Amino acid sequence: MSIYILIVQAYLNKSLMDKFNDQKRELRRTFGWEEYNWAENFGNFARKVDKLIEFKEEIERLEVIKKAIEVQKLSDLNRRKEQVEWEIKKLEEK
User: Is the pLDDT reported for residue 94 higher than 90?
Assistant: First the structure.
């Protein structure tokens, strides 16, 4: 009988500690005192990252964005071409 009482007491202690930690976490979250705990917040961050990745992919699918990216690549290539031509000119002068 005493073993049964000890097991029940351990179970009650564990459930009370869990409830206390949940309430403490809720209080911190309510008042903005949330401490960074990667283990507890990982699911939320993963969902946010997934949503942001999907949003980025949707934006990149737009035709206007595709054209803007293409223009940016062309301007980068043009800038590199000018740099190479300048270096060639510089080497020819020596």
Answer: no
> Poorest-confidence range of 14-23, 26-35, 46-55, 60-69?
26-35
- Vertex 30 angle, CA 24 and 36, to 5°: 65
Residue 65 CB contacts under 8 Å (≥ 6 apart), including other chains: 59
Residue 62 belongs to what H/E stretch? Answer: none
Q: Are 59 and 65 in contact (CB under 8 A)?
A: yes
- Look at the chain and count its residues: 94
The more confident residue out of 76 and 57 is 76
